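[Archive record]
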Amino acid sequence: MTATIRKCTVADLQKLQEISTLTFNETFKEQNSPENMKAYVEKAFNLEQLEKEVLHPNSQFYFIFIKNELAGYLKVNTSDAQSEEMGEEAIEIERIYIINTFHKQGLGKELLNKAIEIAEKQNKKKIWLGVWEKNENAIAFYKKLGFVQTGAHCFYMGDEEQTDYIMVKTLR
């Protein structure tokens, strides 16, 4: 199955909001309260916030399609757009989500490879991400692809403090 990846623009904000909300809910609604999910989604995925992120010069969003159907997306950050101070030699994968019906088709790996390609073009030495400590499938996926846990940071889901593991992959 051939996937197509393309960069998002401001014209894609509505689609970006829809897929962000859908994939976040699919991934986390079973382990979090409806109130905290609602609070997070309304804050993180409102159109004004997404527009600010899409227009940020050090952030990039990409959609992945299967047969012209939107299947997932990726957000990468460099420099001051990173959610943690990791230096100029690093690039962050802030979001990498695939719609559940498209899981197990290699799309996550394709988006990860896109992030690595971006990092290499910018001569970055490492790529990193934060992953919720309870998201065992994602942690196993990243470990399999060479990421190593190097630390942790706090993440707020509504009013609940949660822990994200910081995972880093050194690039050649």
The chain has one domain: 3-170. The CA atoms of residues 57 and 81 lie 8 Å apart.
